Amino acid sequence: MKTKKRSQARSSSQRRLSFPEDEKVHPWLPLLLDAYAAVDEGVDVAIRSAARRGKKIACAKGCSACCRTHRTIPVYPLELVGLSWYVTEKMRGSERDIVKSRLRDYREYDPCPFLAHGACAVHPMRPVACRQFNVFNEPCREGEDPYYTRREDVLTPIKRYTDRAFFLMLPFYGIADEKERWKLIETGAVHQVVKLMQTCNWKSLAGKMEEFERRHAERPNR
Ligand code: SF4
Ligand code: SF4
């Protein structure tokens, strides 16, 4: 009898992040975490499939040229809510100071403001686009966009996992009916709400972080 291989991709429920107390308070959070788990599972499956064809993933912690190079990263309203929550309520220490200052000074089309100490400071809440952008063989050179220089080395996301992620997010926009959700996905209408990370009003998020800090300084035990 065949035994299950240990190296099998982890399912989305196994890889789902969990913030139990926050999920009770923020009904949108479980939707986003479920969606990100579906995306991460899809990326994992695609990387394993590429590995069987001899491709080696180049992305690794501390490798961040992509975060400085890309200036048109798509982000959806629910993802922005997740980023805002994470940065305001969860981020601590020097990362918080760096990100707050980058948000305060942010100008349109600057590099992503969430890069701190050469790594993604919002890693659990990074958008679908960042989760899915993976490169094989060689790390990106500074300023290189491998989508144009070596498309064959850029991971192609598996559509059914991406579709599932958007299906799971749609109730946030008031669309609960399953048939309607699939229709919005099939027609592409689901993408009408997309924005660009580099054109968001990040200064206001710096203000929100400061407001949160003021409130908590006044009530240090909460
Ligand atoms: S996309 Fe390129 S720069 Fe970004 S982590 Fe992967 S190899 Fe490194
Ligand atoms: S959100 Fe994180 S992974 Fe995405 S571009 Fe910004 S720093 Fe990089």
Describe it.
The structure is a single chain. The chain is mainly α. It has one domain (19-217). Helices cover 51% and strands 4% of the residues. A hairpin with a 2-residue loop joins strand 2 and strand 3. The radius of gyration is 19 Å and the shape is globular. The model is unreliable at 1-6 (pLDDT under 50). The structure holds iron/sulfur cluster (2 copies). The site of one iron/sulfur cluster (SF4) has 9 residues, from helix 4.
Please write out the topology.
Layout: H1 12-15, H2 20-25, H3 28-52, H4 65-69, E1 74-75, H5 77-90, H6 93-104, E2 115-116, E3 119-120, H7 128-132, H8 146-149, H9 159-169, H10 178-187, E4 195-196, H11 202-218
Antiparallel strand pairs: 1-4, 2-3
The structure holds iron/sulfur cluster (SF4) (2 copies).
Tell me briefly what this model is.
The protein is built from eleven helices and four strands.
Number of strands: 4
Q: How many domain units?
A: 1
Strand content: under 5%
Mean pLDDT: 93
Helix and strand content put the structural class at mainly alpha
Radius of gyration: 19 Å
The rounded distance between the terminal residues' Cα atoms is: 55 Å
Order of helices and strands: HHHHEHHEEHHHHEH
Number of helices: 11
Helical residues, percent: 40-55%
The largest pleated sheet is described as:
2 strands, antiparallel
**Which molecules are bound besides the chains?**
iron/sulfur cluster
Shape: globular
Can you tell me the residue ranges where pLDDT is under 50 for at least 5 consecutive residues? 1-6
Trace the largest sheet across and list its strands: 1-4
